[in-house]
Amino acid sequence: MDDAGAKIEDDALAQPILDALNTAAWEEIRAVAGNERRMVIVTGLDTAFLPETRLDALLASLHRDLHDDPNILATVHYYSEWVYSGSLGRTGFDEPFRPESADPAERSATPRTHLRDLADNLNRHFTSRGIGVLIGEWGLLSYDTASDGALQAGEELKYYAAFLDMVRDNGFACAFWDNGTGIDRTDPAHGYPWRKPLVGEVMTAGLTGPSACARGLDTLYLPVSAENAARSPVRLGLETHGRTLVSVADGRGQLREGSDYTLDAGAAGASNAEGSSMDGTPADATLTLTAEYLSRVLSRKPGAGLVAELTLHFDGGADWHEWIRAVGQPQVSPTGPTSATLSQPAVSVMSGEAGTNPAADALAFVLHPQQTTRAYWKPFAGTRAGGIAIPMRFEGDELKSVAARPLLRFVTGTNADPDSTWLGPQSGYWGYLQNGGAYMVSYDSPDHLSGTLTLLPSFFDCASTHAVRGPVELFCRFQSGAGCVLSLLLDDNDVRLIR
Fold first, then answer.
1. Rounded to whole angstroms, how far apart are CA atoms 278 and 353?
2. In the predicted model, is pLDDT for residue 323 greater than 50?
3. Is 419 helix (H, G, I), strand (E, B) or coil?
4. Please, where in the chain does CATH 2.60.40 lie?
5. How far is it, in rounded angstroms, from Cα 253 to Cα 247?
6. Helix or strand or coil: residue 11?
7. Bridge partners, residue 484, by sequence
8. Which residues contact 402 (CB under 8 A, 6 or more apart)?
9. DSSP strands (E only) in 315-360
């Protein structure tokens, strides 16, 4: 901090100040009798592991100022990469951050490779030199976000398991950051349980060994049909981490191998949508759910929604839970217009596979010809100051990403260059909105049949949206690969859903 209390952003100015503080603290601790060999935790700037120059500077200070004290722990904090940890359209642990990049390294970077970079940097700078490492805070930034599904549940579990594998393999110490939303500290009668039980199971198992998981999502999305029957087999790729599958069960009992499922433990080539991860890495085993089993469970519950929860039990580690959902086309909840008869629906259907960037998502939409006059939907009105809550029919699906863009033909207050017109608080460098920051999602039940998509005041108040007057499109992608586009009309104060 400078004399005015502001953070010093220039590392060249901040580093000498931090070195002096670390040295003074170290000298005071060592001067106390009994503290001569006590472990002392020393941090670099912002407890960051990137850029590497900060680790270089910390290492230099440990040598120069702390005289290579052998009883030192270098510390960093780690919350993964921002767009994954903060839920800005990237929800998969193996999902590339920027698949459209011309840089091969950037194009292949994922949350998993980001974690490996952390381990490589810490080993290279510290443990290879006999200096211990404490990751003094770790977790995910969206862990306690009130928005439903801000972290895709299975992909969140994969991150925790992989992090603890990395810690064990490299001999690091770590401390999970919990502000009270992880462990329920108000319930001593039940041993202070985890608020997310599956997180607790993976965390506990990760202290001693790896856990198996699905290579793709923890949810199988199957298109809904009138009778939810006559299905084909579905393959589920597994990443076993050396574990052996012992049993598979649903809410009605154990599945029978052969008639309900088959297991190919050597199926390293599984490459279908259910069998491989988002980065294309194949599974090392494949569980196939038979058509007979799928027809049976789907017929028990007609229509969209959650139809089964499978528990895959292995010979070690945490169980893996896989959900089966029947899904339809997400859309705005149907309600009559306040003006003349609508010539178009309130939502347009997106075609194509799940997008990799906002521009690709926008191109994948099948848009109706734009009109200057539109009907207003009375229930779907809000204000810039209060936001707008849009009732949705999610049809069993889970929202993955939202991007916003003005319709340039009619909008004032925006640049005419399409590549510079993404809206939202992070639009200067990222096209997707933050789940829990710019919008919130609420599902009415585990079936995800209906709920609410709410655009928050922070979306309308940010610099990119503040001056916009006119129609704006919301591009919504879902975990199943489906999508829809919603149109809003923004004026000085009011926000309305249109079309």
1. 13
2. yes
3. helix
4. 214-327
5. 11
6. helix
7. 349, 476
8. 89, 432, 433, 435, 438, 439, 453, 474, 475, 476, 477
9. 320-327, 331-332, 347-349
Report how far Cα 124 is from the mean position of its chain's Cα atoms.
29
Distance, in Å, from the CA atom of 116 to the CA atom of 282, rounded to the nearest integer, reads 19
As a whole number of angstroms, the distance between CA 117 and CA 459 comes to 33
Q: Identify the pLDDT of residue 415.
A: 44
- Residue 21 has φ and ψ, to the nearest 5°, of -65, -45
Rounded Cα distance, 75 and 134, in Å: 5
Residue 20 tokens, joined: 């002096």
d(CA 174, CA 181): 18
Q: At 393, which amino acid appears?
A: R
Q: What share of the chain in percent tops pLDDT 90?
A: 75
Q: How many residues make up the chain in this entry?
A: 499
For residue 106, the one-letter residue type is E
Query: Helix H segments across 135-234?
Result: 153-170, 197-206
Beta carbons of 222 and 231 less than 8 angstroms apart: yes
pLDDT digits (tens, 9 = 90+) for 463-486: 999 999 999 999 999 999 999 999
- What is 214-327's CATH topology? Immunoglobulin-like (2.60.40)
Identify the architecture of domain 11-210 in CATH.
Alpha-Beta Barrel (3.20)
